[in-house]
């Protein structure tokens, strides 16, 4: 439902109807994208997209590139367009979105706590580029979930290209275990996220 700023609203949801994935991206607002285009998610599209998700039993992964998108999700939850419990993906460090840092991650989480209510949502986050490790460590310390992979970072570390998504997953698993937490199995992740098989 995202990824191509030139796609039409109709083509952005075709695969949801056809493939019926367990989750799909739901970008809860518009923004200037990487200084060269507009990433448009109009209210009309967001309402229609949410309806298609409901019809096909697909859980929205509510991607928030700034705190205003959390506010949009809170509005759509109150209006009944979205159903709780919500799952937020705090997208940090993208050009024209909120910069990736511990301070900003705390702000995003506190905004969700205020607007949605503690315990009424799950969340994960990722940091792009140089903020990747700080956001990953902070998310684990704050009790959140994490997203890693080459969609968000092609560099494994400074000056070192990533070899695969598995390389990122293996590092994340090590960090989670070293912090004293456990890595969820696929079935446990589905339970945490409230996915219906």
Q: How would you explain this protein's 3D organization?
A:
This protein is of the alpha/beta class. The chain contains seven helices and nine strands, in the order αβββαβαβαβαβββαα. It has helices at residues 14-19, 43-55, 67-79, 102-115, 132-141, 165-178, 186-193; strands spanning 23-27, 31-33, 37-39, 59-64, 86-92, 121-127, 145-146, 155-157, 160-161. Helix 4 (102-115) links the parallel strand 5 and strand 6. Helix 3 (67-79) packs parallel to helix 4.
Structure keywords:
9 strands; 197 residues; globular; two-stranded antiparallel ribbon; 40% helix; alpha/beta
Number of helices: 7
Give the % helix: 25-40%
**Strand share of the residues?**
15-25%
| Shape verdict | globular
Structure at a glance:
Helix content is 40%, strand content 19%. The protein has 197 residues and is an alpha/beta fold. The strands form three sheets. Strands 1-4-5-6-7 form a five-stranded parallel β-sheet. The protein has a two-stranded antiparallel sheet with strand order 2-3.
Task: Detail the topology: elements first, then pairings.
Layout: H1 14-19, E1 23-27, E2 31-33, E3 37-39, H2 43-55, E4 59-64, H3 67-79, E5 86-92, H4 102-115, E6 121-127, H5 132-141, E7 145-146, E8 155-157, E9 160-161, H6 165-178, H7 186-193
Parallel strand pairs: 1-4, 4-5, 5-6, 6-7
Antiparallel strand pairs: 2-3, 8-9
């Amino acid at each position: 439902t995202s990824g191509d700023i030139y796609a039409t609203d109709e083509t952005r949801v075709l695969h949801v109807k056809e493939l019926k994935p367990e989750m799909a991206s739901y970008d809860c607002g518009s923004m200037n994208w990487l200084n060269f285009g507009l990433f448009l998610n109009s209210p009309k599209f967001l309402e229609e997209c949410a309806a298609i998700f409901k019809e096909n039993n697909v859980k929205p992964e509510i991607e928030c590139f700034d705190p205003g998108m959390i506010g949009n999700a809170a509005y759509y939850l109150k209006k009944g367009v979205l159903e709780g419990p919500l799952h937020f993906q705090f997208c940090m460090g993208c050009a024209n979105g909120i910069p990736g840092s511990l301070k900003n991650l705390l702000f995003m989480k506190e905004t969700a706590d205020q607007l949605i209510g503690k315990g009424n949502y799950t969340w994960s986050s990722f940091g792009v580029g140089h903020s990747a490790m700080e956001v990953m460590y902070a998310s684990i310390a704050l009790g959140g979930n994490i997203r890693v992979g080459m969609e968000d970072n092609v560099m494994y570390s400074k000056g070192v290209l990533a070899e695969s998504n598995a390389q990122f997953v293996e590092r994340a698993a090590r960090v989670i275990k070293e912090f004293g937490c456990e890595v969820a199995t696929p079935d446990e992740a589905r339970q945490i996220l409230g996915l219906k098989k």
